[in-house]
Amino acid sequence: VLCLAVLFSTLSGLTVFAQTQDVSNETSYSNETFLDRVRSDFDLVWSDEFNGDTLDTTKWKFDGQLTRRNSEIQIYADSMEDGNLQFDGQSAIIVPKIESRVSQDGRKYKYTSAEISTQGKQSWKYGYFEIRAKQACGKNIVPAIWLLGYDHTSGTCDWPYSGEIDIMERLNSDKATESTLHHTTYGNRGN
Predict the structure, then answer these.
(1) What is the pLDDT of residue 7?
(2) What is the pTM of this model?
(3) Is 99 a catalytic site residue?
């Protein structure tokens, strides 16, 4: 069971199609017919077109709480009032800022950003995701969309033991976009 998290520049839509049963033992289909099959065999179970003027808190939560992780140089905002997540009527726009803030553990930071997540709001076991988004690029910017195991997001299992699927991640100013599965095969490294 997975929850979705987004650390991105502009997100204009996210749709989840799902089946309520395991389909892993079914016959494989070619790439040419996969989208047609998904749209006919799966039901729309969740979507957000980001066409309002604020975050839909029945679907998303801020994943920041003014915390820092992964040796990042910024901390993440914990509400709309911080101004790091803005809406233009058709997109959610994550806006990094140069501003002095103090984290929950008392450390001082010069940068803030935003991260949103479905943690505690929605999770999926089987499904297909359609995502419309634009990547930010530049030095020290890491736009990403990923899925974390529900065990991790509920606090019952530490990363990487709960698993993680990086749907899309662009590291720093690299021109390449990566997709990664994180697991426990290589011990604590988790890749």
Answers:
(1) 63
(2) 0.77
(3) no
